[in-house]
Amino acid sequence: MIVAFSVSPLGVGEDVGEYVADAVRVVRESGLPNRTDAMFTSVEGEWDEVMDVVKRAVAAVEARAGRVSLVLKADIRPGVTDGLTSKVETVERYLAG
């Protein structure tokens, strides 16, 4: 399973990078495969472990902000591993072809 999510504090002003870093730190420390870009952090693993990471990432932001926004998209496909890499490689193959 791959989950792409964005967690952001509300009511703290425009500069939220420090808060987002708290969430990304939780993801990176989880040991699960992950990637962060300008809009989302993606994490790959089994349902319970991925959702636990998302929950802890939200809690990290919530610890410093009274209100938190969470956007989440999931690709639930049992038996697939390394989807973070293989899905991008497939698209790159088509672009190169």
UniProtKB/TrEMBL annotation:
Organism of provenance: Streptomyces scopuliridis RB72
Gene3D superfamilies cross-referenced by the UniProt entry: 3.30.70.930
Pfam families according to UniProt: Thiamine_BP
UniProt record similarity statement: Belongs to the UPF0045 family.
Name under which the protein is recorded: Thiamine-binding protein domain-containing protein
GO cellular component term of the entry, any: cytosol
Thiamine-binding protein domain boundaries: 3-92
Domain of life where this protein originates: Bacteria
